């Protein structure tokens, strides 16, 4: 099925932002230097979790790159209609002409 180009562009950009942010945070954690054993274990745990998330982000991004066969730049919708009114009062032109006629009185 054909999707708009934005259907893939926006998620790819968001995932790229997550990747950059997680890489920056991992580097900050690595740059902390020596810590007490308890805090060092926690840091390693957080880094391992972030590395796992980075891997998932990169896999998802690779899948999104495969699906860039969008055919449309924009998807439009038809003009809304007054189906629930059964078209008893006419269309927009008729309503506008009634409004203008009443305004002139």
TrEMBL record:
Top-level lineage group: Eukaryota
Keywords recorded for this protein, A-Z: Hydrolase, Lipid metabolism
GO BP: lipid metabolic process
Gene Ontology MF: a single term: hydrolase activity, acting on ester bonds
PANTHER family: AGAP000124-PA, INOSITOL POLYPHOSPHATE 4-PHOSPHATASE TYPE II
Protein name per the record: Inositol polyphosphate 4-phosphatase type II
Originating organism: Grus japonensis
